[in-house]
């Protein structure tokens, strides 16, 4: 068993130390609070990942749309650039 890089013997030592520090009556409350904190952290992390993925998909869609429109916009710009270039050399 390996949780957060901590093996079973290390977890047993941590549990004994927590039992000595908080006492048997307070330990379940501390465990419950820790569990709620970890759960809320996981929910916030999942929400952040979801937002990040949605934004990445929107950017990807915008890039695809721009790539579709770009060839149409480049052609007139190149022809005006060629005209300007030839007038400068004259």
From TrEMBL:
Chain residue ranges for the region called Disordered: 68-90
GO biological process: intracellular protein transport; protein transport by the Tat complex
Composition bias type Polar residues, residue spans: 76-90
Keyword Zinc carried by entry: no
UniProt cross-references to InterPro entries, sorted A to Z: TatA/B/E, TatA/E
Record GO terms (molecular function): protein transmembrane transporter activity
Transmembrane parts of this sequence: 6-23
Membrane disposition: Single-pass membrane protein
Entries under PANTHER family matching the protein: SEC-INDEPENDENT PROTEIN TRANSLOCASE PROTEIN TATA, CHLOROPLASTIC
Oligomer and partners: Forms a complex with TatC.
Known role: Part of the twin-arginine translocation (Tat) system that transports large folded proteins containing a characteristic twin-arginine motif in their signal peptide across the thylakoid membrane. Involved in delta pH-dependent protein transport required for chloroplast development, especially thylakoid membrane formation. TATC and TATB mediate precursor recognition, whereas TATA facilitates translocation. Part of the twin-arginine translocation (Tat) system that transports large folded proteins containing a characteristic twin-arginine motif in their signal peptide across membranes. TatA could form the protein-conducting channel of the Tat system.
Family (UniProt): Belongs to the TatA/E family.
Name of the featured protein: Sec-independent protein translocase protein TatA
The organism's taxonomic lineage, starting at the top: Bacteria, Bacillati, Cyanobacteriota, Cyanophyceae, Nostocales
